[in-house]
Amino acid sequence: MKAYIFPGQGAQFSGMGKDLYENPLAKELFEKANEIIGFRISDIMFSGTDEELKQTNVTQPAIFLHSVILAKVLGDDFKPDMVAGHSLGEFSALVSANALSFEDGLRLVIARANAMQKACEIQPSTMAAILGLADEVVEEICAGIDAVVVPANYNCPGQLVISGSIEGIDEACEKLTAAGAKRALKLNVGGAFHSPLMEPAKVELQAAIERTNILSPICPIYQNVNAKPTTDPATIKENLIAQLTGAVRWTQTATNMIADGATEFVEVGPGNVLQGLVKKVSREVQTSSATML
């Protein structure tokens, strides 16, 4: 069975999606996106600087557009048995699997980026990657700290990203290093994504999600918050709303997809980070990047 997976923030690079623009359908979708966004995001994607691409109001829509437009251009070759996306990638997965329209998906991603940016400005916060410790140890140490700090991204066995207030992250990094972590590396991010500090963003995005029409996707989507498959629009909405403050359970998602019969994982969008994470879960499965023929 074939699983299609969609990357999240951090996968962007200058020149992303440029090769797609030659395709008439891709060109039409890029121009539609420029119109909806109100500036030529395609120009920034194709020839912008790393600095321009790093701005939240650019990064999230850019990765979404690269992924979704590539999936649309694949046409009949895009035949997923199951889909999943990492954080922002969940929106790309939903549009590609026909649960959300292109326009609605893009508007939600813009609303999400803006809401997250605002939440980041309310309280200084950050994230850190913890390498070489069992998930249970990280969970236990975070739970014992008074400041806000929680497991945020279960990326693969031995790699868990934590998220929280500056003091919470500092204390956790110190304690996790003492507990035997190979590395506790603070990340260059704007805030504490997938933590309780994103509550203001969640409230804002919830209203937008509830107003949006979500249909049954063409195949099950494995969602971040519980790593379980669903095709039910009400459940999809609920899980999307919970996603901003909930953890991304990518390790569990890949594990469950493999247990349910996935033998091949195709990454749709910029980069190949997710393929590497899936390989850490199982060396047996095939991984590749989606390419336009």
TrEMBL record:
<dbReference type="InterPro" id="IPR001227">
    <property type="entry name" value="Ac_transferase_dom_sf"/>
</dbReference>
<dbReference type="GO" id="GO:0005829">
    <property type="term" value="C:cytosol"/>
</dbReference>
<protein>
    <recommendedName>
        <fullName>Malonyl CoA-acyl carrier protein transacylase</fullName>
        <ecNumber>2.3.1.39</ecNumber>
    </recommendedName>
</protein>
<feature type="domain" description="Malonyl-CoA:ACP transacylase (MAT)">
    <location>
        <begin position="5"/>
        <end position="292"/>
    </location>
</feature>
<keyword id="KW-0012">Acyltransferase</keyword>
<comment type="similarity">
    <text>Belongs to the fabD family.</text>
</comment>
<dbReference type="InterPro" id="IPR004410">
    <property type="entry name" value="Malonyl_CoA-ACP_transAc_FabD"/>
</dbReference>
<dbReference type="InterPro" id="IPR024925">
    <property type="entry name" value="Malonyl_CoA-ACP_transAc"/>
</dbReference>
<dbReference type="Pfam" id="PF00698">
    <property type="entry name" value="Acyl_transf_1"/>
</dbReference>
<keyword id="KW-0808">Transferase</keyword>
<dbReference type="GO" id="GO:0006633">
    <property type="term" value="P:fatty acid biosynthetic process"/>
</dbReference>
<dbReference type="GO" id="GO:0004314">
    <property type="term" value="F:[acyl-carrier-protein] S-malonyltransferase activity"/>
</dbReference>
<feature type="active site">
    <location>
        <position position="194"/>
    </location>
</feature>
<feature type="active site">
    <location>
        <position position="87"/>
    </location>
</feature>
<dbReference type="InterPro" id="IPR014043">
    <property type="entry name" value="Acyl_transferase_dom"/>
</dbReference>
<dbReference type="InterPro" id="IPR050858">
    <property type="entry name" value="Mal-CoA-ACP_Trans/PKS_FabD"/>
</dbReference>
<dbReference type="InterPro" id="IPR016035">
    <property type="entry name" value="Acyl_Trfase/lysoPLipase"/>
</dbReference>
<dbReference type="InterPro" id="IPR016036">
    <property type="entry name" value="Malonyl_transacylase_ACP-bd"/>
</dbReference>
